[in-house]
From TrEMBL:
Region of interest: Disordered: 1-23
Sequence ranges assigned to domain ATP-dependent DNA ligase family profile in this UniProt record: 401-535
Primary location class: nucleus
Pfam family, one: DNA_ligase_A_C
UniProt xrefs under PROSITE patterns: DNA_LIGASE_A1 (PS00697), DNA_LIGASE_A2 (PS00333), DNA_LIGASE_A3 (PS50160)
UniProt protein name: DNA ligase
BP GO annotations: cell division; DNA biosynthetic process; DNA recombination; DNA repair; lagging strand elongation
Superkingdom of origin organism: Eukaryota
Listed EC numbers: 6.5.1.1
Organism of origin: Ostreococcus lucimarinus (strain CCE9901)
A GO cellular component annotation in the UniProt record: mitochondrion
Matching NCBIfam families: dnl1 (TIGR00574)
Broad class of enzyme this protein falls into: ligase
Length: 664
């Protein structure tokens, strides 16, 4: 097989920070932007549809570097060139670079199975399925196979070139094709795209359809490049240079990040940017009921005394941390109610009981509202919270209320919108007031989270003990003056779990990427699994431990059944695993499992967070134990390598803390 130019990227990028703010590098970058002439790079007729090949070639250049600043510059300049030629093509280019086709909460994803892609590729190139599969096994990346396959094609009447808007339109059509013979129809559409593809295009068509570009282009970089391109294209940006320009670019990125977290739809944001620029964006794109915000998350802490130390001069409150699943409930003016998961998935159909119950706990003056709650399995006879495992036995689709066996109670902890007013930028104490003003408790159905505001160490320790006795995970400590920070793991929210007190740290959410066949009592299922964390920069899964503990026989069988459809021929090119690890089978990254470990150690074998704590070695979990499946998380939402490094460092700090006899 001829070697394709670009290969899926596996190297982590650590050289520069993700954000370009102030500092020499961003000033230098700003100066370089001034040297770039966007129009001169328009190699097609100015104003005509942007060729997909232009973007695919940019992806190729991005694949060849690991430097974040360079990647951001390449993409920013590409967006500028598109803006200079045909601004309305920018939306499609942003979607294609983000490898999405619709806003996340609409739940329409690409992610076509390999079998369909291989068949389409075989038909488009005249190659045999088997030979493509062999190449795939060898290369570990179907995109490279597609690129190499293209070069053997001769075409008498070449079809018209692909365009960025045309490709996005086709992707959307492929993703929404359903019903009779939908697999065949999808295959037909994919084949058509592949037949039209030139040079490296086929590789990116395939990778996009698989759901991942694998060129090391993070969503944050796309957002940054979009903000920068808009500033550089605008009249105000053109007048600035040096530090002033770098400042304007940094500020624009901050605005766009904030707006995107509150209104996560490019369909709204990009046209607004074209019309009113960064300056008018916040006014145009606001948080509205019906569109979920990414949840604010908490940082781990090691004990009550650490909380008191961190929040020495800051007012804070403590709430029970309930163990269920996050439910963001939206009531729109038109009466429509939606429930979104932690993952912005629309879970409305899963909870008809909550939707019907709403009228009992919402006050009559409330016309529109968004609240953040934890939905918890609840025993209404004994009036007690049930463990998370019970909640996970509840059905997920086509739920009929009369058949629901596992009852759920809502524990509300935040109010993000009330009667036409977004409250995200209001302080916590105001949002709490809004929550109390809009709802009333209904025993067994709707509660406000149990909270305590105190600075007394014994009182707080007692509250933590009570929270554990009540079947919750512990506490979340929240500063009372902080705004809601969508999608941030913020220091304004600290989680205090029982496990931290026991010195074994937080659990990790990891992805099974391989397994060993079981022996003896475990014959017929997998006896152990290879788990990985996710590295966001390098877009790779890094092995972190081999796990064989914590599984009941039933669970082992359930997991084997769930994983078997995802067995692949060999490790993907984006798995970072030492040669010493040789599982019997490999899996597609599909699931997330919550795992607890005794501690973390520097490892000669495992690759997690390699380069972050030790320059050469990774981190491994010692004595890992399976806790549960996390069906509410996508593989890329698994614990990331930076968190693994943080856990490792926190453990080292805690040991030091204990050695000084200072801990609680
Ligand atoms: P975990 O794996 O423990 O759920 P996470 O990364 O999903 O961790 P954390 O930052 O640990 O999230 O905790 C926030 C989650 O805790 C929220 O998504 C929510 O579902 C849940 N939660 C329960 N009680 C509360 C509360 N009182 N305030 C905020 N979040 C709460």
């Amino acid at each position: 097989m001829p070697k394709a130019k670009a290969k899926a990227k596996t190297k982590a990028k650590k050289e520069e920070p993700a954000t370009a703010g102030l500092g020499d590098k961003s000033v230098e970058a700003a100066e370089r932007y001034l040297e770039y002439d966007p129009v001169s790079k328009v190699t097609w007729k100015l104003g005509d549809a942007t060729p997909y090949l232009y973007l695919a070639n940019i992806f190729e250049s991005i694949a060849e570097t690991t430097k974040r600043l360079e990647i951001a510059e390449l993409l920013t300049n590409a967006f500028r060139t598109i803006l200079a030629s045909k601004p309305t093509d920018l939306l499609a280019a942003v979607y294609l670079a983000s490898n999405t086709i619709h806003p996340q909460h609409e739940g329409i994803d690409l992610g076509i199975g390999d079998a369909t892609l291989i068949k389409a590729l075989a038909e488009a190139t005249g190659r045999k399925d088997e030979s493509i599969k062999n190449d795939y096994k060898e290369a570990g990346d179907l995109g490279s196979v597609a690129m190499a396959s293209r070069s053997t094609q001769r075409m008498m009447f070449p079809p018209p070139p692909l365009t960025v808007t045309g490709v996005l339109k086709e992707f959307r059509a492929i993703a929404t094709t359903d019903g009779e013979k939908s697999v065949d129809r999808k295959k037909g559409m994919i084949k058509k795209l592949l037949v039209s593809a030139r040079e490296c295009e086929a590789g990116y068509v395939i990778r996009s359809l698989q759901g991942k570009l694998r060129i090391g282009l993070a969503q944050q970089t796309v957002t940054q490049s979009l903000a920068h391109a808009i500033v550089l294209h605008g009249d105000a940006g053109k007048k600035k240079k040096g530090a002033e320009l770098a400042d304007a670019l940094g500020a624009a990125f901050d605005v766009l990040k904030q707006v995107f977290s509150e209104c996560p739809t490019f369909d709204q944001i990009v046209p607004a940017l074209l019309e009113v620029g960064i300056e008018g964006l916040q006014e145009r794109c606001k948080f509205t009921p019906g569109v979920p915000v990414k949840p604010m998350l908490a940082k781990p802490t090691t004990g009550v005394s650490e909380v008191l130390k961190r929040f020495e001069d800051i007012a804070f409150t403590c709430e029970y941390k309930y163990d269920g699943e996050r439910a963001q409930i939206h009531l729109q003016e038109n009466g429509k109610v939606s429930i979104f998961s932690r993952n912005q998935e629309d879970n409305t159909a899963k909870f008809p009981d909550l939707i019907n119950g709403l009228k009992r706990y919402i006050k009559p003056h409330v016309k529109s509202v968004v609240i953040d709650c934890e939905a918890v399995a609840y025993d209404r006879e004994q009036n007690k919270i049930l463990p998370f495992q019970i909640l996970s036995t509840r059905g997920k689709k086509n739920i009929v209320e009369s058949e629901i066996k596992v009852k759920v109670a809502l524990y509300a902890f935040d109010c993000l919108y009330l009667n036409g007013e977004p409250l995200l930028r209001e302080p916590m104490h105001k949002r709490r007031e809004a929550l109390y003003s809009a709802f009333q408790e209904v025993p067994g159905e709707f509660f406000f989270v149990t909270e305590k505001t105190s600075r007394d160490i014994d009182e707080l320790q007692g509250f933590l003990d009570e929270s554990i006795a009540e079947n919750t995970e512990g506490l979340i400590v929240k500063t009372l003056d902080a705004t809601y920070e969508p999608s941030k793991r913020s220091l304004n929210w600290l989680k205090l779990k029982k496990d931290y007190m026991e010195g074994c740290g937080d659990s990790l959410d990891l992805v099974p990427i391989g397994a060993w066949l079981g022996r003896g009592k475990r014959t017929g299922v997998y006896g152990a699994y290879l788990l990985a964390c996710f590295d966001e920069d390098g877009e790779e899964y890094q092995s972190i431990c081999k796990i064989g503990t914590g599984f009941s026989e039933v669970i082992l069988e359930e997991l084997a059944n769930a994983m078997n459809p995802h067995v692949i021929d060999g490790p993907r090119s984006y798995y970072k695993v030492s040669d010493a690890m040789k599982p019997d089978v490999w899996f597609e990254p599909k699931q997330v499992w919550e795992v607890k470990a005794a501690d973390l150690s520097i490892s000669p074998v495992h690759q997690a967070a390699c380069g972050l704590v030790d320059p050469q070695k990774g981190i491994a979990l010692r004595f890992p134990r399976f806790l549960r499946r996390r069906d509410d998380k996508e593989p890329e939402m698994a614990t990331n390598s930076e968190q693994v490094a943080e856990f490792y460092n926190a453990q080292a700090n805690k040991q030091e803390f204990n050695a000084n006899g200072d801990d609680d």
